[in-house]
């Protein structure tokens, strides 16, 4: 097994074990840290998939944004700082959750084994766009051309959506704290 | 031109390590199952949100994996899957912001974010 292969399995196991930590640990702050490690591992997986820009965005937005946001939320919603959010979980919910997770995982693995995805036949419209883009902007630069070319409308809509989400979040908090 | 398919030879019986689609899909499935377990089991509302983020990441890994292996145009990856993952990241950020605002609003009213206790519509 080559060095790249070994490194891939290291990142794979790191991601899987961090995600397992998120699901099983009782302390909510430990779970938030483990979530950050999971996102870090997923970013490494994106690098193995030749998706450099997506890996960078994953680090910036998920690890540097969402995990920090979650930790702020935990800090503001815990009663004491010594034991943030220790929670005993009922046996019934653990069994039900374990059963559901195992069942979904089994179904997904069976589906993956029965995979029959038709590949591009080098004649469709998607391929024409790809060839045109790669001729102009090789490598990961083509992603920028896609984002501002074919996917311009979702790009702009998502910008408006983020603006609306931020305004909505602020208004949610403001209503509860203003005193008449 | 006849249609080519991704089959078992490309997944389970294919090459090992980072060149095999099956490993990435397996990771996606594992993250998804753990996210489901998180959403069902956690009592803290922010813990449920963490399960949602795990599920979204699993979907993103699947998208990028198919963008790498599902496009048979030489050695280069296609970009459609990566674009989808970018939008997933953006939407997850917006959704996490709104969800945390909700959690904090509930906490300010009830002084508890235990989802098993938030079971009445009007209090």
| Mean pLDDT across every amino acid position of chain A | 87
Under CATH at level 1, the class of chain B stands as Mainly Alpha
- What structural class is derived from the secondary structure elements of chain B? mainly alpha
Assigned CATH class of the largest domain in chain A:
Mainly Alpha
Write the layout of secondary structure elements.
The complex is a heterodimer of chains A (180) and B (123).
Chain A: H1 3-24, H2 28-48, H3 52-76, H4 91-113, E1 117-118, H5 125-136, H6 141-148, H7 152-177
Helix pairs in contact in A: 1-2, 2-3, 5-6
Chain B: E1 5-6, H1 21-41, H2 45-69, H3 80-110
Helix pairs in contact in B: 1-2, 2-3
Q: Which properties best describe this structure?
A:
heterodimer; A: 180 residues; mainly alpha; Four Helix Bundle (Hemerythrin (Met), subunit A); globular; B: 123 residues; Helix Hairpins; 63% helix; 2% strand; elongated
Notes on the protein architecture:
- The complex is a heterodimer of chains A (180) and B (123).
- With 180 residues, chain A is mainly α.
- Chain A is 76% helix and 1% strand.
- Chain A has helices at 3-24, 28-48, 52-76, 91-113, 125-136, 141-148, 152-177; one strand spanning 117-118.
- In chain A, helix 1 (3-24) runs antiparallel to helix 2, helix 2 (28-48) runs antiparallel to helix 3 (52-76) and helix 5 crosses helix 6.
- Chain A is globular, with a radius of gyration of 22 Å.
- Chain B has three helices and one strand.
- Chain B has helices at 21-41, 45-69, 80-110; one strand at 5-6.
- In chain B, helix 1 packs antiparallel against helix 2 (45-69) and helix 2 runs antiparallel to helix 3 (80-110).
- The longest helix of chain B is centred in the C-terminal third of the chain and has 31 residues, at 80-110.
- At the A-B interface, helix 1, helix 2, helix 3, helix 4 and strand 1 of A face strand 1, helix 1, helix 2 and helix 3 of B.
- Strand 1 (117-118) of chain A pairs antiparallel with strand 1 (5-6) of chain B.
């Amino acid at each position: 097994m080559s060095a790249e292969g070994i490194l891939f399995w290291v990142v794979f196991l790191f991601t899987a074990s961090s995600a397992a930590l998120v699901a099983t640990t009782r302390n909510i702050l430990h779970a938030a840290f483990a979530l950050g490690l999971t996102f870090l591992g997923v970013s490494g997986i994106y690098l193995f998939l030749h998706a450099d820009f997506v890996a960078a965005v994953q680090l910036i937005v998920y690890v540097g944004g969402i995990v920090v946001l979650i930790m702020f939320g935990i800090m503001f919603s815990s009663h004491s700082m010594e034991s943030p959010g220790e929670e005993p979980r009922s046996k019934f919910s653990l069994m039900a959750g374990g059963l559901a997770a195992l069942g979904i995982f089994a179904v997904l693995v069976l589906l993956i084994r029965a995979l029959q995805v038709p590949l591009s036949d080098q004649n469709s419209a998607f391929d024409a766009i790809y060839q045109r883009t790669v001729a102009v902007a090789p490598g990961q630069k083509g992603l920028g051309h896609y984002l501002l070319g074919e996917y311009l409308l979702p790009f702009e809509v998502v910008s408006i959506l983020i603006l609306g989400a931020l305004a909505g979040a602020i208004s949610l908090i403001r209503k509860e704290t203003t005193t008449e | 031109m006849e249609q080519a398919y991704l089959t078992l030879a490309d997944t389970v019986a294919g090459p090992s390590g980072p060149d095999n689609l099956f490993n990435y899909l397996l990771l996606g499935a594992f993250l998804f199952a753990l996210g489901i377990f998180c959403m069902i089991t956690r009592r803290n509302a922010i813990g449920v949100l963490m399960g949602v983020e795990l599920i979204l990441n699993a979907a993103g890994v699947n998208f990028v994996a198919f963008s790498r292996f599902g496009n048979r145009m030489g050695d280069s990856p296609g970009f459609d899957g990566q674009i989808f993952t970018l939008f997933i990241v953006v939407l997850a950020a917006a959704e996490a912001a709104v969800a945390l605002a909700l959690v904090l609003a509930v906490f300010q009213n009830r002084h508890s974010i235990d989802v098993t206790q938030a079971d009445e519509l009007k209090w």
